[in-house]
Every structure is written in C-alpha cells, then in structure tokens.
Design a protein that fits this description.
Layout (H helix, E strand, L loop, with lengths): L1 H17 L2 H40 L6 H18 L3 H33 L4 H46 L4
Helix pairs in contact: 2-3, 2-4, 2-5, 3-5, 4-5
Family: Belongs to the exbB/tolQ family.
Membrane topology: Multi-pass membrane protein
InterPro entries: ExbB/TolQ_transport, MotA_ExbB_proton_chnl
C-alpha cells in the first residue's frame, strides 16, 4: 500500500512539473489505449464468432452466383468491414492530437518563462527552470504518446485489413 502511495506522489509530482497540459496528454493517451484495447478484444474474441456466422449464412444459401447474391455478399462484407474499422478514426485522431497537445505545453511553458522574466528579470535561473520544464515535459510526453499510438494503431490496422480479406476469401462466389 505504501508503494502505491509513493507511486501516486511521484506521478503527481511529474504532472505538476509538466503543467496542466500534461493532464490533457494523459487523458488523450488513456482514451487512445482504451479504444485500441477494445479493438484488439473485438478482433480476437467477437469478430471470429461474427465471421463464422456470416460464412455459415453464405454457405447455407443455395444461390451464390446471381447478381442479387453478389450484392448480398458485398453488403455483408461491407458491414463486417465497418464493424472492424469502427473507432479507428478516433484512434488515429488521438494519435495525431498527442504531439499537438505536447506543443501546446511548450507554448504555455514558454509563456511561464516569459512571465518570470518580465517580473523577476533574467537574473534568477531557478525561477525560469519551472517554465522550461513546463515547456519540455509535455512535448516529450506528447511525442512518446503519439509514437506508442502510431506503432500499435498501424499493427491494429494491418490485422483488421487481414481479417476483412480472410472473410472476403471465405465467402466464395462463382
């Protein structure tokens, strides 16, 4: 329990050093990872059952060659692709927003440095250090958050594409 309290205090200290913008980066990162985790769970646990049901419905059809049958197949594939790629736009937007939030932290940190310089002058580097950390920590955090999101969302997109193609291949049409 003491370890958790110490961990929470160190996180709070880091967040305070980075300024309020760091909380926005953290919220964006948390939301991005929750959505990516949901997509991974959907892909590995829910979609296989849905895929099986669609394939069974297709193979149960007697007519697989008519124009009408092809439109039904395309509609089922389109629905499956839509369900697979749901929320990927939000994930990609959050990946793109993280570095921008980091840059917002840079701007607010530099404003804090300029405020200290205006009030105290340039003779007190200790007071300016707080603003400089408010400028650099959110930038670093935004970039790290975006890099983690880019890597995993790219892998997730590739897996989603492969799953959609496998479904399409399993719905034979002659």
């Amino acid at each position: 329990m003491l370890y958790l309290i110490e961990l929470w205090e160190s996180v709070r200290g880091f967040m305070a050093t980075g300024g309020d913008v760091l909380w926005l980066v953290a919220i964006s990162l948390f939301l991005m990872w929750v959505l990516m985790l949901e997509r991974y769970l959907y892909l590995n646990f829910v979609f296989p059952k849905e895929r099986k049901a669609v394939v069974e419905k297709w193979h149960a059809r007697e007519d697989k060659t008519s124009w009408h049958a092809h439109r039904i197949r395309e509609a089922w594939l389109s629905q499956a692709k839509g369900q697979l790629t749901a929320r990927m736009g939000i994930i990609n937007a959050l990946v793109a927003i993280c570095p921008m939030l980091g840059l917002l932290g840079t701007v607010t940190g530099m404003i804090a440095v300029f405020e200290v310089m205006a009030v105290q002058g340039t003779g007190n580097p200790r007071l300016m250090a707080g603003g400089i950390s408010m400028a650099t920590i959110p930038t670093m955090s935004g970039m790290v958050a975006a890099l983690s999101g880019v890597f995993f969302s790219t892998r997730l997109n590739a897996k989603l594409k492969v799953s959609a193609e496998k479904l399409q291949d399993s719905l034979s049409h002659h």
